[in-house]
Amino acid sequence: MRLTVPTNWQDDLIKKIKKPGVDTVYGKLDRDFVGGGRPSCILNKVTKNKAKLHVGDIHKEGLKFYYLLNSSCLGNLEWTSAGHRELSKLLAWLLDIGTDGVAVANPYIAQHIRAKYPHLEISVSCFANVNSVEKAKFWEDMGVSTITLPPVELNRDFKLLRKVRENIKCQLQLIVNDNCLSHCPLFIYHNNLTSHASQSKGKVGIFMFDYCFLICKYLRIKEPANFIRAAWIRPEDISVYENIGIDRFKVVDRGMHADAIALIADAYSKRSYKGNLYDLFNNPSTSLWLNKPSFFHKFRYFFHPFTVNLFKLFKNRKVVQNIKVSIDNTKLDGFIEYFFDHECRYNSCAECGYCTKIAQKALKIDPDFREKALEDYGSFIKEIISGGIFKY
Question: pTM for the complete prediction?
C-alpha cells in the first residue's frame, strides 16, 4: 500500500504520520496565485520560509512532497501576462523549496509545467473529474504520473474502475476518507467556490460563504442513509481496490490538527479501525481554525460588514458544530461487496434501499441533535436563499 497524507504545516506532524505505507505528503500555502481545494479561512497560515523548512523535514524522513495547484478555475487570470508572471514566480519558489511534484486540475497548467519543468512530477487532482476512460487517457498522454479519480463518482463504481485500470498505465489514486454525497450535485460548484476562496489575486477577495457545505450537512442529517452512501472506503477494504489495480490511496484533510491526521493515517496503514468510522472524517472538533483561531484570523476572514450581515452570521454560528453520529465500523464487514455488481449511477437510491438498510444496522444519530440541527440548518439555508443574510 502507498499512502498520500496531508500536511497542515504543524511542526509535530511529520513524526506522527510516519506510518508503514506513507510515502508522500501533500500541502499548500493558505493562499497563492492558483488557489486550491480548501478556502483560506479554514487553513493554518504558514510563511514561505516555514514551508521550506517543513518540506526539508519531510525529505529528511524519506518522504516526497507534492504541492497543490489544483484550482478548478483561475477566473481567466492565467491568460494575462501578469497572471503568467505570477504562475512562473510560484513555480520557481516550488522548485527552490525542493518540491517533488504538483497536483493540478487545469490542463493548461499541466502542459505548461511539463514543457518548462519536465523533471517535476504531475498528479491530476480529483477536481479534474476524470470519470471516464477517455478523460484518463487525455491526462496520461500529457505525461502525468498519477491520476486521482473523483471519489463521489468512482469509489464504488467497480466496472468503471476496472476499465480505467485496463486502459491506463500511470498510477491511479483514490481518496479514502471523503464523506461527500455520492454523485454529489454540488461537486463542480463547490470546487469553484473553494478555488476562488484561496487565491491571492481573486477579485472577490478572501471571504467565502460555504453554501455547499451547509446543504451537504443538511441533506445528511435529514436523511442519515446519506452518511452510508458517501464516498468513503473503509480501511479494511483497501485490498479490494488493490486487487483491481489501484496503486495509491489519499487521506484528507489538511485543515485538521496533527493528531486527527495521524489517527486517520494510522487506521489506513493498519487496514483496520474498530471504532466509530466517522472519526476518520473531517468534523469541527478536528479543525485547526475552529479550535485555535486567533482574533486576527477571525477578523481577517469573517469581519466583512459590507458583504454579509455579521449579526445574522453570528446568530447562526451553531451550525458549525460536530455532527453527533456514530457509524459502527465492525458492522460493515462485507458492505462493499454489494457494489461489485450494482452500479449506483444507473439506479435510484429510493428503489435500491441498500444503504438505508445498512444505516439501520450500523448508524446511530442523536435524535435530539438531529431535530435541533434540522431546524437550525433549515432556517439558516432559507435565510441565505432569500437573500436575508446580506441585509441588515
Answer: 0.93
**Rounded Cα–Cα distance for residues 341 and 1 (Å):** 25
> With 90 as the cut, is the pLDDT of residue 87 above it?
yes
Given a cut of 60, whether residue 205 has pLDDT beyond it is no
In this prediction, residue 309 carries a pLDDT of 79
105, 188 contact by CB (below 8 A): no
Compute CA distances 257 → 32, 36, 158, 176, 300, whole Å.
21, 19, 33, 18, 21
Topology at the third CATH level for domain 2-390: TIM Barrel (3.20.20)
Domain regions of the chain by residue span? 2-390
Instruction: Say which residue the cell 461487496 belongs to.
Output: 337
CB atoms within 10 A of CB 125: 25
Give me the residues paired with residue 66 across strands. Answer: 26, 101
pLDDT, tens digit, 9 for 90 and up, residues 97-122 = 999 999 999 999 999 999 999 999 99
Q: What is the 3-state secondary structure (H, E, C) of 139-163?
A: HHCCCCCEEECCHHHHCCCHHHHHH
Does residue 292 register a pLDDT over 70? no
Query: What are the beta bridge partners of residue 39?
Result: none
CA–CA distance, 198 with 30 (Å, rounded to integer): 7
CB atoms within 10 A of CB 49: 9
CA distance 208 to 391: 17
Residue 372 host element (H or E):
helix 367-386
Listed residue (164, 221, 256) closest to 381, CA to CA: 221
Torsion sign, CA atoms 198, 203, 209, 212: negative
Indicate left, alpha or beta for 214 from its phi (over 0: left) and psi (-120 to 50: alpha).
alpha
- Report the distance separating Cα 305 and Cα 297, nearest Å: 16
Q: Are strands 171-175 and 2-6 parallel, antiparallel or unpaired?
A: unpaired
Q: Is 72 helix (H, G, I), strand (E, B) or coil?
A: coil
What type of residue sits at position 47?
A: T
Give me the chain's average pLDDT, please.
Answer: 92
Mean pLDDT of all residues in 122-144: 97
> How far is it, in rounded angstroms, from Cα 38 to Cα 199?
10
| 135, 136, 138, 144: CA torsion to nearest 10 | 140
